[in-house]
Amino acid sequence: MTSRSLLFCLGLLSITPLPAVAEDQPVVVELFTSQGCNSCPPADALFERLAQNDDVIALSLHVDYWDYIGWADSFAKPEFTERQKNYARAAGARSIYTPQFIIGGRDQVVGAEPMPLVESIHRQDRSAVTVTLDVERDGGMIEVDATAQQSFAQPLIVQVVRFMPHAEVAIERGENAGKRVTYANIVTDWAVVSEWNTQSPLDLEVAVDGDEPAVVIVQEPGPGAIVAAARAF
Question: Is 125 helix (H, G, I), strand (E, B) or coil?
Fold first, then answer.
């Protein structure tokens, strides 16, 4: 991935691009957002543009802790709130915020801040490949093959994520009352399917239902760094 292509995606070519880097594998960007948060629509719009870039796997997780304001987020799940809390605990943070981007399981950007987001993605892209991941989908089955290029202190977590590519929501109450907001890559399910000790290659078959797109993510526990990710479309 080049920073120029990413800046083009985000509509930021008026800003001097960062140096080009070699393309290794997609960078996973998670956005924790809520239909009830009035700071979130600018981040949702930024995320929608980001999701158009093939070098990024963009996943939007809707949290439920804004629901009490007067509008229950139609995509929110408590397990997504818990995932955000676990990231905060792993980082030693005492609070969680929306909107919040988590990049590669390592970095965070709070708010709709394009340049810090681009710079963080650039840093992740420069990281050495530690796991080679190949994914193929054949109807209702996903074949996952992976090989570790280094040893890891703990088993890695293999996850399959399903998402809805696009939705538009008319928000009737709460802080965003009267707005129609477009959302991209809305996560509908995030499932741990295996723990992998990396001492031998991973060869795994996972059954999936329906036609929703899927991605496979291999991550250090914590949640920690995402060491590999691939689409299973």
Answer: helix
